[in-house]
Every structure is written in structure tokens, then in C-alpha cells.
């Protein structure tokens, strides 16, 4: 069949001499400047397991090690496929070993899900979802559909770039981009309607009511859900020209806003492929570790309500988030004509349901008397235990309500206190995983609990140290502090 077979080329008895002959032949036929293929064979200890390289192959010559490697394909493949999972993942705790998927396999899996599950869905709200929307104080069906059109147009613009007054969303530079953007808008809207219906069913079941007006009239909740749907569509199509957090900029959201919906999105979309769940998990880690602590995050608007003692420092540093732009503002920024899109939902409803109380001045938010945080952050179990982000059920309408509104579940705490409590719990669980992994790598596992307790104390008592910082900085400082104290005690 045109193939050349060299008998006994890799036999143990003559491998060394054959290798030298091939080396001489290669040196006489190769051209200057060509890629030296010998570099892939000689001194390639990476494909040999650490256990074997330190015991069996220490005193072997290079050709001998190459022969042993080529003669043991099972060990080589096993070592290459078995990779440790992300140590910082709140889902797996950093201790589970998985087989790494190739980019092609991942893309095929997510594309199959998008075509098989999402593309077949209706383009408009289903009859069940329409029933929830019409059961509110006023029928919100038209508001929901109009909002989807406006927000997705901001993310996936279908007008040529010359019609845009800003730099939001994708830049449609030619006619071929417009059909692509239209298709992505359709996929994102279908996914949004599907998850919204699942959330409505769950909320109705847990609250025993069909009137979900506080939640379904909340502008921030809908935008977070749309942004999450659009981000998954972008991730599925590997859209590198609009990488996260571009979707936040297009929708007027902050990192703290999006962190409230990711867990619920994954919980209510059971068909979501593992690759997209990992993508959302990765985004959530970015939000928790640094992005939610950046200047302009809505986290600070909740902190001034939940912890009034922090208000002066937040104001001094100018960390408060600006008011979320209304749908009319987004339309105006994109330079739409009135006939291009239907009228937006009323500004009054969006302002009333806005989490940050956009109708109020940020300064008034800070100087008015507030209740202190009622419940302290719960003690996270020792670092050896399994950490997940699964918590007891809380109604989403409390999560997305205005910070100054009382918790709808009961009690005297404000909704801001509930949101901060949940956020801090996630921070502690993520930090516990990273602290455990760091201490294991440094071979000081016995100090894991000490480092974690210091980190927790800083988050609880010295929260200002987190402002505009990455949590890894605080973890390293906590570890350094423990090491210094132990060194002093030892001396």
C-alpha cells in the first residue's frame, strides 16, 4: 500500500545502533534552519512519569529512555490524559482528576446542545411563561419581549457600524456579520425564555403563589438572565471578538449583579453541557475573586446598607456604582430610530424594582441610618471537607430587590444584608479551597485552618482591605502572617 516497514527497527538488542545510524543519516540530509526533529525525542522527560524517571531511568542513556518510552504507550497516554482539575473550582474542590477534553470535542458538544435543545424552542414566550407574565399585577408579556429585543440588539447589533453612536456590542463591519448576529440573538432569546420559565415554576412552587410581580418586574433580574444567556451563546461559538466582560458593558450591569444569577441559571437549565457549566463556574470565580470588588461595583451600594460603618470609606474612595442605564438610555446610546424598535417598558417600573435604588442619590444611600448586619457569616467547615456553592433556597425576588427593602421571607434584615451574606459565603468557600490547595503545595497542611480563620476574620472585621483588591492577595498575606507568627514562636 505504499508503506515502508523497517523490520526490527525498535528491537531492544539493536535499538542503540539503529538510533545512531538514523542520527547520522538525519545530520547528513537535514538543511540548515530546518526544524530539528531530534528535539522531540532527546531529553524529553516530560512524557515519562515522575515516579519512573526518578527510579528506573536515572542512569539510562537517552536512546534507552526513548526506547522505554516508545515501548510503553499505555503509560505515556495515561500520563498525558490524567490532569488535575482546577484547584480553585468551587464545584470539584480541587481534588478530582478528570480527562482533559480537546477544544474540538468541547466545541462539538456545546454546538450539539445548541442545535438539538435550544434551536428547536419557540421564538416567543411559551404558553406557560405567558401565563406567569399575565398573572402579575399588570400583564408583563410585552415588556419582556421588548426588553429582550433591546438588550440583545446591544450585544449583537445588526446595523452597520456607521449607524452606531457608541462602541457597544459586536462591530458589524459587513453584510455577512448581520445574519450571524441575527442568528445569535435568536438563540440567546430562546435560551432566556426557557430559563425564565423554569425559574418561574420553581419560584411559584416554593412560594405557593402564581403572582411573581416583584421578580418579573425587576429590570436588573431580567438583564442578568439575558446577559447570562448571551454569554453562553458567545462561549458556544467561541466569539473571541467579544470576550467577557463585554456582555456586562453592553447591558449596563456590574460583576456583582451577574454573580447573583449564575448559580440559579445552572440549577434551572438541567440540559446545560458540562463545558458550559465550567465556563459559568470560571466566570463566577472571576466575579468573586476580583471583579465584584472593583470600583463602580454595585456590591458597594449594598454594603453601605448592610454595613453602614463602611459607608464613609466607600464614599471617600468613590467606589459606588452609577445608576443602571435605563432601556431608553441604551436605545439612545445606540442611535436607534423610533420606528426601529418598539417603545421601552416604563422607566418608573424599572427604577422602582432596581436593586440599587436608582431613583435615589448614592449620597443619600450612605448617610441615612441603616440596620446593621443581623446574621454573621456562617463558619465554613474545615478545609478538608467538601465545599460546594449549594445553599438553602432563597427567593430570587429578595436577591434582586432594592437593598433597602425588607427581606420578603421574614425577619428584620434588609435585602442588601441577604445579598451580602450570600456573596461573602461564596467568597469564603472559594478562599477555603485555594487556601487548602496552597498549603498542600507548600507542605504545610496543618496550617490550613489557621490561614482560613485569619482570612475569614479579615472579611468579617476588616472588609475595607478587600476594596479594589484580588482575594489572592489577602490569602497570601494571611499565609505570610501565620508563617511569621509560627517562626517567632519557634525561636
Taken as a percent bin, the fraction of beta residues is under 5%
Q: How many structural domains does the protein architecture include?
A: 2
Structural class: mainly alpha
CATH class (first level) name of the largest domain: Mainly Alpha
Give the integer mean of the pLDDT values: 74
Task: Give me the side-by-side strand order of the main sheet.
Answer: 1-2
CATH superfamily of the largest domain: Cyclin-like
Radius of gyration: 28 Å
Q: How many angstroms does the end-to-end distance come to?
A: 76 Å
CATH architecture of the largest domain: Orthogonal Bundle
CATH topology of the largest domain: the name is Cyclin A, domain 1
Shape: globular
Biased composition (Basic and acidic residues): 349-365
Domain Retinoblastoma-associated protein A-box: 102-303
GO cellular component, one term: chromatin
GO molecular function: RNA polymerase II transcription regulatory region sequence-specific DNA binding
Amino acid at each position: 500500500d505504499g508503506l515502508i516497514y523497517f523490520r526490527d527497527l525498535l528491537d531492544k538488542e539493536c535499538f542503540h545502533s539503529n538510533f545512531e545510524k538514523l542520527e547520522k543519516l538525519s545530520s547528513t540530509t537535514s538543511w540548515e534552519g530546518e526544524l530539528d526533529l531530534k528535539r522531540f525525542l532527546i531529553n524529553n522527560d516530560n512524557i515519562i512519569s515522575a515516579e519512573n524517571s526518578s527510579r528506573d531511568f536515572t542512569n539510562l542513556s537517552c536512546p534507552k529512555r526513548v526506547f522505554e518510552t516508545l515501548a510503553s504507550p499505555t503509560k505515556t497516554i495515561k500520563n498525558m490524559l490524567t490532569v488535575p482539575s482546577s484547584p480553585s473550582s468551587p464545584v470539584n474542590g480541587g481534588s478530582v482528576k478528570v480527562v482533559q477534553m480537546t477544544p474540538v470535542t468541547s466545541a462539538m458538544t456545546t454546538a450539539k446542545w445548541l442545535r438539538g435543545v435550544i434551536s428547536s424552542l419557540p421564538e416567543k414566550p411559551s404558553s406557560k411563561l405567558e401565563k406567569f407574565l399575565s398573572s402579575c399585577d399588570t400583564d408583563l408579556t410585552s415588556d419582556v419581549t421588548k426588553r429582550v429585543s433591546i438588550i440583545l440588539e446591544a450585544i449583537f447589533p445588526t446595523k452597520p457600524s456607521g449607524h452606531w453612536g457608541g462602541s457597544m456590542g459586536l462591530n458589524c463591519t459587513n453584510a455577512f456579520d448581520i445574519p450571524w448576529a441575527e442568528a445569535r440573538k435568536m438563540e440567546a432569546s430562546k435560551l432566556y425564555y426557557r430559563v425564565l420559565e423554569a425559574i418561574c415554576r420553581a419560584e411559584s412552587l416554593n412560594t405557593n403563589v402564581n403572582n411573581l410581580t416583584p421578580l418579573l418586574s425587576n429590570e436588573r433580574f431580567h438583564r442578568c438572565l439575558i446577559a447570562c444567556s448571551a454569554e453562553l451563546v458567545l462561549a458556544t461559538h467561541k466569539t473571541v471578538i467579544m470576550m467577557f466582560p463585554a456582555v456586562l458593558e453592553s447591558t449596563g450591569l456590574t460583576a456583582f449583579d451577574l454573580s447573583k444569577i449564575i448559580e440559579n441559571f445552572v440549577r434551572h437549565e438541567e440540559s446545560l453541557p458540562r463545558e458550559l457549566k465550567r465556563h459559568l463556574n470560571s466566570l463566577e470565580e472571576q466575579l468573586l475573586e476580583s471583579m465584584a470588588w472593583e470600583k463602580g461595583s454595585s456590591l458597594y451600594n449594598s454594603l453601605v446598607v448592610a454595613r453602614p460603618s463602611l459607608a464613609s470609606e466607600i464614599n471617600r474612595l468613590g467606589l459606588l456604582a452609577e445608576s443602571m442605564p435605563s432601556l431608553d438610555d441604551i436605545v439612545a446610546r445606540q442611535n436607534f430610530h423610533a420606528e426601529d424598535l418598539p417603545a421601552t417598558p416604563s422607566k418608573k417600573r424599572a427604577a422602582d424594582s432596581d436593586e440599587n435604588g436608582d431613583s435615589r442619590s448614592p449620597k443619600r444611600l450612605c448617610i441615612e441610618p441603616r440596620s446593621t448586619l443581623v446574621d454573621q457569616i456562617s463558619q465554613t467547615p474545615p478545609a478538608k471537607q467538601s465545599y460546594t456553592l449549594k445553599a438553602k433556597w432563597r427567593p430570587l425576588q429578595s436577591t434582586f430587590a432594592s437593598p433597602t427593602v425588607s427581606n420578603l421571607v421574614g425577619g428584620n434584615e434588609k435585602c442588601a444584608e441577604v445579598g451580602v451574606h450570600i456573596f461573602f459565603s461564596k467568597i469564603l468557600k472559594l478562599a477555603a479551597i485555594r487556601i487548602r490547595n496552597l498549603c498542600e503545595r507548600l507542605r504545610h497542611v496543618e496550617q490550613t485552618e489557621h490561614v482560613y480563620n485569619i482570612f475569614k476574620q479579615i472579611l468579617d472585621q476588616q472588609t475595607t482591605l478587600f476594596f479594589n483588591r484580588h482575594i489572592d492577595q489577602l490569602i497570601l498575606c494571611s499565609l505570610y502572617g501565620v508563617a511569621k507568627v509560627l517562626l517567632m514562636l519557634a525561636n
